[in-house]
Amino acid sequence: LASLQDALTRLVPVDEAASEAADRHQARLTKPPGALGGIETLGSQLAAIAGCAPPPIPRRPVVVIFAGDHGVLAEGVSPWPAEVTAQMVANFLAGGAAINAIAHEVGAAIVAVDVGVATPVPGPTERLVKANVRRGTGNIATEPAMTLGEARRAMQVGLSIADRLVDQGHDLLVTGDMGIGNTTPSAAVVAAVTGWPARSVTGRGTGISDEMLEVKAAVVERALERVADSRSVSATALAALDADVILAELGGLEIAGIVGLCIGGALRRVPVVIDGVISLAGALVATALAPEVAGYLVAGHRSVEPGATAALEHIGLEPLLDLQLRLGEGTGACLAIPLVRAAARVLHEMATFESAGVSGSTESAVEPEQAEQPEQPEQLGEPLSGPEPEGESSALE
Amino acid sequence: LASLQDALTRLVPVDEAASEAADRHQARLTKPPGALGGIETLGSQLAAIAGCAPPPIPRRPVVVIFAGDHGVLAEGVSPWPAEVTAQMVANFLAGGAAINAIAHEVGAAIVAVDVGVATPVPGPTERLVKANVRRGTGNIATEPAMTLGEARRAMQVGLSIADRLVDQGHDLLVTGDMGIGNTTPSAAVVAAVTGWPARSVTGRGTGISDEMLEVKAAVVERALERVADSRSVSATALAALDADVILAELGGLEIAGIVGLCIGGALRRVPVVIDGVISLAGALVATALAPEVAGYLVAGHRSVEPGATAALEHIGLEPLLDLQLRLGEGTGACLAIPLVRAAARVLHEMATFESAGVSGSTESAVEPEQAEQPEQPEQLGEPLSGPEPEGESSALE
């Protein structure tokens, strides 16, 4: 298994030539150029990630849910008690959480990882990945979340899990999180890395009151000022610090796990679909440590948390969904998996204008195809689903 | 099979009591209230449509692609030749179009219907539903698209197909269209029904030039003025006309087929997932003829066509996706099917706070559950997908 330092030196950028080959192919398919919008962009990104066009259709996605607790809960930033983190981990294992239903629907496996839970997980835990680095973070308003060594160990947990899952045949990784209070450290990390003001990236998390939101924003400001004071920089210039230092000072153990998963996915050249603001805080740290990672990331959705938008803009990601979600667990990212698969499938299964015998547009800028590729529609595979009235339905049903 | 007039009198509104029951259940599930955003709203709508909570998870979706040609093409509103309509129908039958790849991915069947194609469909057509009412419409800039009788026959085609598909076990209908030039009549119908100005609802369709867009907007204005003059009303007051008259004057045969499909889906109480601006033009006419239809409609996506946004606002639909699509065929609606299924599945498979033993929030407004429902997580079904490292994956793979 790769070590974190080793992984960071071995990362390669995505393959722009494969992306361009996919773009050229998209332009020949039987649709107006660009008419599939974000699906075409995504298909070409998948080609860049895999280094080939058409890219493989992801068949074995897996959601990795990193769980950790947060000392900052002592400041009153969430109405939920800390033990809900462990209880929700038990719920993932028992199959009763939102992520279980959504992963079931899209055909994704689930892995739950205790990387920093503070209280015992109730019930049977044989299937839990036990990789606890520390039983919850310090209170970031007054002390570092964790040591740099702990942050690196938690990142290594995520990296090793990514490596193992790809070895086992998983071909798409989805980030997920569970941690009561974790939108507070996420806002702090987002503010530190992007330079956006604390108040503009602090949101209502699970849906807190105006009063609690005020407390929460002040806590994020105090945390940023604490780190700035200790490093003798201004609170708006924290981005100059090393990203792993920001993670250790302001982050969370589950955020560190997500950083490792992003790096591991990029190392193994599989798409990493990113969930909401906690996952995006991890993605921000990962891309700050290694800019090559960004090309391997797909933003599953835009969370209602304002920090999510700050992080998406900073990394340069356009989210696939915007359904006003604010749950975490990987739910928004998992809901986007069928779009990822569809983007790859379009490149495999669509006919070209020439192969289908469809006339072009008089305004079209489509290049003529090579005469030596006279493929017939019949060679593109069986029709997936025939017209009725015989009730014919697709192979997937 | 229901006749159109009969169907319009037999329609019933969606079941608000079932929707409220779903809302109450959503509030007890192991997530912060409302945290699944649009997925929760959709789940409750599905309950209202089916008249029960939880609603069935759609297992046999079907995309119905109505194809028709347009006399207005003579005005120079599209760079694509008319015969592409028939060629693309052949492409659907051969399995090479974008809708084939996307329907394959999401497990939807496809039905292609010739309701108004002008030229012969090349190649084998045994699986085409042949229901041609007229070989293309009149040029709406100068004459009615069709007679009122033709419009009603084309709506009846859509209604009968919906009825037959639901009889065959399909439990979710998706609207699709093919018709070179059909964003022009769609813009005209949208302008007439919503009262939005012609220029604000006329878009670039397949991606036309500034010059052609100018021609197109002027054509839409001329068409609206022609109808206004013939009925002695102002061009901004066309909404006062009967919706079937607007359809006959300004619409298309495939739009009429979609109107019938929407009414048929509502009659049979199955969700009808609506595609882009052509489908929305049909949905506008359907809801103008029978307001009860609106509750059965799910907007699959927001097309880049400005008329789509006008129609969505007018009907009161919030689209699930916004991926900058402008293709039609049902592609954007079909991409949304996994979201529809996920919304229903959440209501079937998630545990409640009580059943999962998860503590509540101190700010939570969740009602306590009835003591006589002490369900255990084990009773909610097998866990769908276990954590690794054994490579355990979900039942769907």
Characterize the structure shown.
2 copies of one chain form a homodimer. Chain A has 397 residues and is an alpha/beta fold. Chain A has helices at 4-10, 16-28, 37-50, 83-94, 98-106, 148-167, 183-194, 198-201, 210-231, 243-250, 253-267, 277-289, 306-315, 331-335, 337-349, 353-356, and strands at residues 61-68, 109-116, 129-130, 172-178, 272-274, 297-299. Chain A has a 6-stranded parallel beta sheet with strand order 3-2-1-4-5-6, sandwiched between helices. In chain A, helix 12 links the parallel strand 5 and strand 6 (297-299). In chain A, helix 1 packs across helix 11 and helix 11 (253-267) crosses helix 12. At the A-B interface, helix 3, helix 4, helix 5, strand 2 and helix 6 of A face helix 3, helix 4, helix 5, strand 2 and helix 6 of B.
- The topology string of helices and strands of chain A comes to HHHEHHEEHEHHHHHEHEHHHH
What is the distance, rounded to the nearest whole angstrom, between the alpha carbons of the first and last residues of chain A?
38 Å
- Give the C-alpha Rg of chain A: 22 Å
Helical content of chain A, roughly?
40-55%
* Biggest interface, chains and residue tallies: A-B, 109 and 109 residues
Structural class of chain A: alpha/beta
The gross shape of chain A turns out to be globular
How would you write the strand order of the largest sheet of chain A? 3-2-1-4-5-6
Average pLDDT figure of chain A? 92
The low-pLDDT segments of chain A are: 365-397
